[in-house]
Write a structure and sequence with these properties.
Number of strands: 2
Strand order of the largest sheet: 1-2
Distance between the termini: 21 Å
Helix content: 40-55%
Radius of gyration: 19 Å
Structural class: mainly alpha
Order of helices and strands: HHHEHEHHHHHH
Strand content: under 5%
Length: 208
């Protein structure tokens, strides 16, 4: 199995960042970055063999709001693809050792559906919740779904200024007293990615 920083990789689109750089900017070690590289290759080759992850939806005739938002947050450069550096940095936010401030920022941007710098649309938030429930593939009755969706109204308790929108500071304060909102922002297996994906372990040949 080839190492991360091969000559071919250096010339491939989406792999410009050196693993040492990515390790210094995320909770991952250099070895874990290399393991993530192997995982990334498998994902990126599942549809197009161009070394990049493209935006795709299960149902091409229906936009998936949740998948769309997650993709957009991973796609820092907003060029329609997720490059390896973006993949690692974004996953780093879900690492158990990632700063809580980073997780709060990610959730705020997730719910800032209109890119206004505020959480300001209750209808869009309800649609997002429905999409998340759909993606979870849980079998829930319509009544249960309605109860969960109505819980979204509690978000507006964060609107301390009473101006009909939630800014970053209000969201940070709200999450600090409602930490369960960050429950899905931690993926425990990322703490030991090599053992979870043993087939992706590689021998480090990274240049200093």
């Amino acid at each position: 199995m080839g190492c991360y920083h091969s000559k071919k990789t250096r010339n491939s689109p989406g792999y410009e960042d050196h693993p040492n750089l990515l390790a210094s900017q995320t909770p991952f070690t250099v070895g874990e970055v290399e393991a993530l590289y192997e995982l990334y290759k498998k994902i990126s080759r599942s549809i197009f063999n161009d070394g990049l992850i493209h935006k795709l939806f299960r149902n091409r005739n229906k936009k998936n709001l949740f998948a769309d938002r997650i993709f957009d947050l991973f796609d820092y450069k907003r060029n329609g693809v997720i490059e390896f550096g973006e993949f690692v940095r974004s996953l780093g936010t879900f690492h158990p050792n990632a700063p809580v401030a980073d997780k709060i920022s990610f959730t705020f941007r997730l719910y800032d559906l209109r890119h206004t710098g505020y959480i300001d649309s209750i209808d869009d938030l309800k649609e997002m919740v429905v999409e998340i429930l759909h993606e979870s593939e849980l079998v829930l009755s319509d009544d249960v779904v309605e109860i969960i969706v109505n819980k979204v109204q509690s978000f507006w308790e964060a609107d301390a200024k009473g101006d009909g929108r939630i800014d970053r500071d209000e969201w940070r304060d709200f999450v600090s007293i409602n930490p369960s909102l960050l429950k899905n922002m931690t993926l425990p297996y990322l703490k030991d990615i090599g053992k979870v994906f043993p087939s992706f372990e590689v021998h480090s040949e990274v240049e200093d």
